[in-house]
Specification:
7 helices, mainly alpha
């Protein structure tokens, strides 16, 4: 079942249970899917494209919550974090730092990367391998640590 279908099903559940936070987040996600479909013009989105959209929506919510918390606006941050939690259920299980480190070390070994000049090459390979399973900032920090 595609992520879009899962979102539609969860929207129906949220409507029935009158869960407004979940409904708001799911409607925004469905809107993002529809927008991406019209931009692409192709119609159906691939599983990878759907995952990227979900990740983008989660990141938006978390970034907004962070800004609200910096401004001491917990009343605005809480709904954003709640929406992010609703959307995260559509993402694959995130990898631990140890698992990411393992993949990074294997990639460095394979490519023969030796210093910071090879960071782009390593990042490209690792990012593709861990798409949807790890945050770009985390990957970047681990690659920097291993190459320096």
């Amino acid at each position: 079942m595609s992520i879009q279908q899962q979102v539609t099903d969860k929207m129906k559940e949220a409507m029935k249970s009158k869960n407004t936070v979940a409904l708001t987040a799911l409607r925004a996600l469905k809107s993002a899917f529809m927008l991406a479909q019209t931009e692409a013009g192709a119609g159906d989105l691939s599983e990878e494209q759907e995952l990227k959209i979900v990740q983008k929506q989660v990141k938006q919510r978390k970034d907004s919550a962070k800004v609200f918390q910096e401004q001491d606006r917990e009343d605005l941050a809480e709904p954003e974090l709640a929406e992010a939690a609703v959307l995260e259920q559509f993402l694959p299980e995130a990898l631990s730092d140890e698992e990411i480190t393992e993949v990074v070390e294997q990639t460095i070994e394979k490519t023969g990367a030796s210093g910071m000049k090879d960071m782009g090459k390593v990042m490209g390979i690792v990012s593709k391998q861990l798409a949807g399973k790890a945050d770009g900032k985390t990957i970047s920090a681990i690659v920097k640590e291993k190459l320096s």
